Amino acid sequence: MKMIRTAALLAAGAFTLIAAPAQAGKTFDAVKAKGFVQCGISTGIPGFSIIDSKGEASGLDVDLCKAIAITMFNDASKIKLTPLSTQQRFTALQSGEIDVLTRNTTQTLTRDTTLGLMGVGVNFYDSQGVMVKKDLGVKSAKELNGATICVQPGTTTELNLTDWFRSNKLEFKPVVIDKFDEVIRTFASGRCDALTTDKSGLASVRTTMEKPDEYEILPENFSKEPLGPMVRQGDEQWFNVIRWTLNAMIEAEEYGITSKNVDEMTKSPNPNIQRILGTSPGMGKNLGVDEKWAYNIIKTLGNYGENFARNVGADSALKLERGLNNTWHNGGILYAMPVR
């Protein structure tokens, strides 16, 4: 009898722990107090984060920052963007200069275990590749033995490049440059035979070239590059805000909820849709935000698919295929954890 009673008490305690909403953490409280979200973005990658001549920022990573601000404040304008190089990005997050790194960053075990940071989720599945001028006359990266290759330091790109060439018993000469815009200029000037970065980045760079048709992205994939936001360790409440902001955008697409039909969808009898849109309350309370947080994101920015199309997909200059970044039931690997 004593064992049964103990088990019952443990079960009741477990239920209490599950049912209790998460406590606000240091970053969550600080963001609420200052009234905006400070996001680290790249120094300029069209389609992901770019600031135009009018000071207007756009891109997939910028929209994720806006979505976080909507979750916290129901206002996409409550953001401050800090452009960061690959060398600066982790230090800026570690020091508290930024609240979240939405800059295109590969999630790896080393980064999760040695920097005091952690990846939150994937908002773009990519792979690393190489771009060359067509007049170089090569059709495969295996033809680049002895080539000079432009690459940014302190990146998985630099490490993957070395690994790939070594495994294929080939040699190369790295031209290491910190700022991405300088990397592009160096490559365009002919100082490098090739440029390497994520393939989405290569497609982005090609659109900025004076004669885009003169450049070719070679077929080899050097690596897996799951790109996504990162936060500091030790603040689960803030981690959850970023994680579920991203999940809600993906799951909205899974259920066919868009910026155009979101108001009609609030009348849906589907309990999953009711939880996402806040017509069945509780999810917002658990996160410490408004019950309509996901509705507000979708109404303002759209679901993940709408964000993809606008920034890097069919409605953008890049025209990237969805590929792996399609939802799981449409042939991709995007699979959101359920908002429930």
UniProtKB/TrEMBL annotation:
- Sorted alphabetically, which SUPFAM superfamilies does this protein's record hold? Periplasmic binding protein-like II
Keywords annotated in UniProt:
Signal, Transport
InterPro entries, sorted? Bact_solute-bind_prot3, SBP_3_CS, Solute-binding_3/MltF_N
Residue ranges of the Solute-binding protein family 3/N-terminal domain? 36-265
Return the SMART domains for the record: PBPb
Q: Tell me which positions the record assigns to the signal sequence.
A: 1-24
Give me any GO biological process, just one: amino acid transport
This chain belongs to the protein called: Amino acid ABC transporter substrate-binding protein (PAAT family)
**Species name for this entry?**
Advenella incenata
